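Friendly challenge for the regulars: who can give me the structure tokens for this chain first? No prize, just bragging rights.
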Amino acid sequence: MGMNGKLRRVRARDLGRVRSDEQFRNTLLSAGRQLPDVASGLSILPWYARWPMRFLLRKQLKALKAASAQGPVQEAEGEVLDLHKSWHGLHWLMCQSVWEGPEPYRSAILGGEEIGDDIGYGPPRLVEPRQVEEVARALSALSASQLMQRFDGEAMERQDIYPGNFSDDGDWRSDLRRDYERLRKFYRESAAQGCAVLSWID
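First reply, four minutes later:
Bragging rights claimed.
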């Protein structure tokens, strides 16, 4: 489980629909993962707690049901990039900041326009095609070797970069380097196709 950073390409023709159509947006966000059975999960609660929770979660339950009814989204290979738990470490390495940082690097994972409702760890964010091109150029100019020269496990832990253990886990250097290369490739291909990028924490 945990918090996983995900990015998805959005075709220019779908930009308006992503902004205005919540059901369509939720279907895109659900691609590539099993939708949680929230209704069944509520059954473990005592009877007097189930109804208030169903009322509070009515919008989420409706969206999940609609997305599930449509079935899985058919997607081409590479349409979704799952950075797993590398997302926050990569942001810190690119921006040298916990949540903010200079553009266009900030837009690569945590930037863009917030759209829709909070889906658990904040609303999804949309990076426009023009910004995608800027991110792609910036990442192209910053090699993985240059990025990893900034790695400082102790500093990352002091700043509570998720998920922690950067100074103890010897795999983090190789994982972050690998996922940065994947991020560069994803933005390079997205820019070449004139796509926007939808990002969220799942």
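Residues 33-71 form one domain. Strands lie at 5-10, 80-84, 113-114, 125-127, 196-201. Your move, everyone else.
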